[in-house]
User: Fold this.
Amino acid sequence: MGRITQRRRVTRITVGEPPRVREDFLAVEEPMEVRVGGAPLAITMRTPGHDFELAAGFLVSEGVISSGQQVRAARYCAGATEEGLNTYNVVDVTLAPGVAPPDPSLARSFYTTSSCGLCGKASIDAVRTQSAHDVASDPLLISPELLAEFPERLRAEQAAFEKTGGLHAAALFDGRTGEMLVLREDVGRHNAVDKVVGWAILQDLLPLRGMVLMVSGRASFELTQKASMAGIPLLAAVSAPSSLAIELAKEVGLTVVGFLRGNSMVAYTGAERLDFSAPAGIAAPERIRA
Assistant:
């Protein structure tokens, strides 16, 4: 898996038994700087891989871009070390002609940790970025039976998590057919979502109408906002949402389902998108697009 995982010698200890030295895998965490037109914008801690998607998804979340046609190119920058080497940890995105560059107030002279996608924002009002896509009008209807399949299918495709036990995952499902379109893993749950959204915008698929964003952890405010910015009408999580996530979801008309485990779930907002009248459809074969 290259730079996604790393081998380390560890000591396995079980009370009452002799310690055992063995090799184990760790999830890799490295900083990545996002630049736009050569100007530094942010540094985030992430698991290497799908970095162009991560940068593009981040720009969607920040309201800089809202369609794939607004991105002209993305590249790794050389010269990140004194020797001028390319560490593949600096991504420069070139916007299409006529697309406004990020507001200077978005530039961050600090890094965001892998556990927080909004660190350093001055206030809650500052992160209520106006989405270019209306999720409230999305006509998505999905049966609880079909929705209940998603966590197990998400877990089954987490190859890096299987080796390390230390990565979050996010996946995009078609709410009509149940097809899994893409899955991404990262040490940061917000990065995993940005990679999914970045994949979609680089495919020029935004807004993601009729889609379900499934995440392996909790539904936090920043994940709710990222779903809204991408035009995703339903956010599903295996754990709990936060109060602020639910406030934002109600404000924009987004459905949030938490504690999605086995055959049970809790609809915190937008329960009208859960169709209890029809049996679950037959899901199409899974296909993860690279």
Remarks:
- Residues 144-273 form a domain with the Cytidine Deaminase; domain 2 fold (CATH 3.40.140.10).
- Residues 119-124, 280-290 have pLDDT under 50 and may be disordered.
- The first helix runs from residue 51 to 61.
